[in-house]
Amino acid sequence: MNVHEIDEESMTYLEDHIPELAQAAFQQAYWQALSEGSKVLKAEAGFLVEVSPDGSKKVLKPLPPHTQVNAGEKRRIR
Q1: What is the pLDDT of residue 3?
Q2: Which of 6, 13, 35, 62 has its CA 20 to 30 A from that of 78?
Q3: pTM, 2 dp
Q4: SS3 assignment, position 46
């Protein structure tokens, strides 16, 4: 097997854990940006909030309500 090839079992395992891996990557990027002195944006309690490295927060605007999407449903962006 080539070094870059992956077997079906490993591929299935990784695919099953994509949400967890993505969450960990976003969390790491969030903290890295703050540690480097940058501000970050996040959704909090229905608002877009700017978080500063010192921990202070500034509410920028309210966010629209969530759009419910069912698995397999196709949506068209206008």
Answers
A1: 65
A2: 62
A3: 0.66
A4: coil
